[in-house]
Amino acid sequence: MYDINVRGPLVEGNKTIHQVTEEISRPMESTVRAWWYVALVISLGALGFGTWALYMTVTEGIGTWGLNNSVPWGWAIINFVWWIGIGHAGTAFSIFLLVLRQNWRTSINRAAEAMTVAAVMCAGLFPLFHVGRIWVFFYIVGYPNTRGPLWVNWNSPLFWDYVAICTYLMSSVIFWYLGMLPDFATIRDRSTSKVRKAIYGFFSFGWTGSSKDWLRYETLSKVLAGLIAALVVSVHSIVAMDFATSILPGWHTTIFPPYFVVGAILSGFAMVLTLMIIIRKIYKFENYVTDSHLNAICRILVFISLIMGTAYSTEIFITWYSGNEYEMFTFFHNRITGEYNRAFWIMIFSNAIIPQLFWFKKIRKNLVIVFIISILINVGMWFERYVIVITSLSKDMLPANWANYSPSIVEIGLYAGTIGFFIMSILLFFRFIPMMSIHEIKSVLKYSKIENATK
Amino acid sequence: MGRTIIGIYDNEDYLISALKKMKEENIEVHEVYTPYPVHEVFKLLKRKTRIPLAAFTFALIGLGFSYSYLYYTSVISYPLIYGGKPLHSIPSFIVIAFVSMISLSVLLSFIFFLIRTRLYPGKRPTIIEARGTDDAFVVVIDHNEGMSTDEEDRIQSVLKKSKAVEVKVKEI
Known about the structure:
The complex is a heterodimer. Chain A is mostly helical. Helix content of chain A is 69%, strand content 0%. The radius of gyration of chain A is 23 Å and the shape is globular. The N and C termini of chain A lie close together (12 Å). Chain B is α+β, with helices and mostly antiparallel strands. In chain B, strands 2-3-1-4 form a 4-stranded antiparallel beta sheet. Chains A and B meet through α2, α6, α7, α8 and α16 of A and β2, α3 and α4 of B.
């Protein structure tokens, strides 16, 4: 049970239930401010750049990328893993905390899930693009065909990946949408404009809030949470197996699945933190996303970052302990030192060392520093994937195969395009969807009034 | 539904004590509308759901279906050996079957939920009290055909005594 005397109120400012409805639906009902349009134009610009890059990829082929025979996986795969990692923690955040009955998730879960959906969509684009001939992507669907029927190679981790990501996207969307049904109904019932009433009425599926519906709703969200929690762990393990089942030095390790899952949670939590600081600041939701919420996320980040640090050092230790000369070369001459050492050290500093600053209360309270660290973690996580993909591929066992890699403008464009898409989705989310789960905040209001606490 | 007596509360605690009171007085509550799920209400109205059982069944069906599909395609329909791996590669099949199990269970449970709650896109519900999705806790009591005026007054007074902010009779 949540003890308010120990942990402080979940929602500050002694709100009434009606106030919660009012305040959370306000951003959707008030006029749009200029910064929103500016941000939208910038994100659409980035999306335009990405569209051009996609056009080049489709019309000219993968030759427009900076890939070569030794490095056939470049930015596309790095970005894919990076986005899927960010997309992971949104749902992980919401679901693990639901399964553990942590009430403080209530004001953050909606934004985290929205971020997940947008990030997984971005992630899903890269496997699609990197095949080059996008129009034959449907070959990966195992359906009865006229080519035999020749089925898909079920033994390939790349195929597992495809199944996992489709499942993850669908489940995240369903889970997110389910949570929005009651809130859409709230907006439907309070809006005075006919158009809004009709639109939100359509999307609320006719929700009324009867006890029967609530019971089913709650039960279903717990059941889905249980299912998706297993999925979160398995999806990123499968992504890790894309690498770990190969025999390349630096990839062929059993530590990869847990290491990837934890890495995904680190980057996703950092992104949640970034997003919540922005939401809280712009929309003045300080009473809902309180200092203690952000404090809690920071503390979780310390813990996850320690696991990351352990994983990095375990990898290096095992390399030395195994005595395998190829592994030794990859880690000691190609990562810690060597051409790509900058990426390696950015990874170590931003993921394992800098988040340790969150041990200090003063730093956890200084939101500017927290914001900067949250972004640094995501930069670091990008470099982690860069280190894994590029260093291992560019120098494998045969020196004759060695080749360097640098991205072409088309690859950069695709990455910028997905960032534009992500920001655009978040902006639309700010505008048209309640940013916090209205009904869930109402249900924890009783943990927010001191006089009710002793009951 | 016909004539109903409606009591509106503005507080979860009052609602629960009112429901308890009505149970003592043998007043049958038709439905309660709340802005957020209140677990006491489920208990007092004896609401039950079979969604966990359904989800479990869907998961079993999903697991069985996907595993047999994998087995059929790689062992029966087109037995092709590549990489020296066995046709029936259990470790790979488990990974795919596990994920498809979750996939089918999530999808079918959601559809099951929509069917059971009779919710669908664009449905126009009968809204008894618009504030029910905002901050009002609404108790709806069926007004039976043969209900006498005394009975109606009794119900209304119970509602009022249990701190209802508003009591009204409405045709639905």
